[in-house]
Each structure stands twice: as structure tokens, then as C-alpha cells.
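Please produce the structure of this protein holding manganese (II) ion.
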Amino acid sequence: MKLVSFNSGQIGLVTDGGVVDLTDLSELPPGMWPPVHMVRLIAAFDRSAVLERAAARAPIPLSAIQLDAPVRWPNKVVAFPANYRAHIEEAKAQGQLISRKAASGQGFFLKANSSLSGPRDPILVPNVQGREVHHEMELGIIIGKRGRGISASDAPKHIFGFTCLLDMVVRGKEERVMRKSFDTFCPIGPWIVTADEVADWTDISLSLYVNGELRQRATTRDLIVDIGRMVEMASSVMTLEPGDVIASGTPAGVAPVIAGDLVKIAIDGVGSMTLNVEADPRGDDPVWHAGEKDGAI
Ligand code: MN
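Below is the modeled complex.
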């Protein structure tokens, strides 16, 4: 199944004819704030109720709706750094690595939930002079069932599905959460594909193109911390909630994007989305221009 959020407060199922509205299954009114419709659908997921509605209702053509981030208001967005060896080598060469450890020895970080954006939204490059904004192509893992202390072998029971995810970042040495939490720095979409539709999680292929040029290509086979271990590690610290998003970490090939670029991410068996990069006049702050001595203690 492919599940979408659309029109700023509705959710639905993608069928051959378009999107079948499932907003009533969330038991929340369309457009309600906070937009937790998908989180509630996932938390009380009832496959037969979804199929029943899909059979009874006329689909809306995809061209007639605006797709949003499939999960708009999760409890958290967990992200794994340095999770492909080739990317660690490239980051070392570029002097970007904060820690010399891989995710297996470094753990994870969080991105602000408000950095999530959807498949029709542009990526906004903040007006921070002298800094590069890089794309990181990642698999987004959507949690289905609450859990704490989940073992890697039990992880599949807690995974609802997958989505395309870009972990955008301002390069530099400031706190990672600040550099990675600008609005629109976590595009996800175009939908969530339920886990049952992805045959082999250990070999999912991902590709990223900028202006039609291949920049990143990888498979989950090369992950250092695999999907089961990501769930195990994150849930050793925090209760994972339905709708939580886990970003897998990026392979080699990260590079800058600038206003006017077109970024396409494609994940086999999941989907693809193409995003415009636009300039945002906001975002500057003295912290980005502080010298080595500023803030010294
Ligand atoms: Mn990343």
C-alpha cells in the first residue's frame, strides 16, 4: 500500500485511479492542527478498513491534489550519521567529519520535526554567505508500532514502511542539529510504502540526481548499521512511536546544491520525487560567521 498526506490535512491511499480519501480513519477532521492524521492512521492501522474504503470510494486524480510530507507531525526524526564507509572516507577527505567514528560507534542524532517538507515543496537554501548546503540521499524508515528496547530481530514488527528522504545540511562545525534543522531540510515522500511491499530490506537501491546528473547511488546492503540495528539502537534510548521517522544515513557523493537546481531521489520499490531548490532570504545569524575564538570558554 502507498499512503499519502495531501491538501494540508487529509490522508489517503494511492490506487490506480488516484487517491482514495482515508481522513475519516484518523478520526480527526480534515485540516486539523496539529496535523497528526497519518500518525493516528498508523497507530491504529486496520488494513481491512483501508481496503473496504478503497473499494467503496471514488479516487481523486493525483493531478487534482497537493501532496504533503506523508508524516507531518511525528514524535521525532532520528538520523544516523556516517553509516556508509565510502561516505566516511569522503567526509574525512573534505575535512567535514566531526567524529572519526562510524554510526556503529557514534550513535544517532535528531533533526527538528519542523524540518520535514513534502514532495511538492522546494528545498529552501538559507542566506548564509560562504557556506555550502549539501544533499544527503537517505532511506526513510517509518515506525509502525510503539516500542522500547526492541531487538534487531524484532525490528520488522515495529516498522510500518519506507519513504524517500533527503537529509539537507549546512556544512560546518556548528551543532549538527542546527545545521540540519532549517525548514525544508528534511523532504520526505512522495508516500509511505508499507513494509510488506518491499521484498528485501537488505538490498534496497537508492539513486540521487541533480539536474539529471547522477550524484549518489547505493544499496542498503552497504549500510554499516543496518535497518534492524537502527531500530535496536534508537529504542535502547527512546520509546519509538508510530509515525516516527528514521533517516538511514547517506552514501558517498554528497555535494552542494544551489538555487535553481533540481534534485531527484529515487528508491527502488519505494518511489521517487523531484524537488526544486530555491533561495531563502532568511536564515542568516552571527553564529555562522563567528571566528574560532568566538564562543571560546
Ligand atoms: Mn545524513
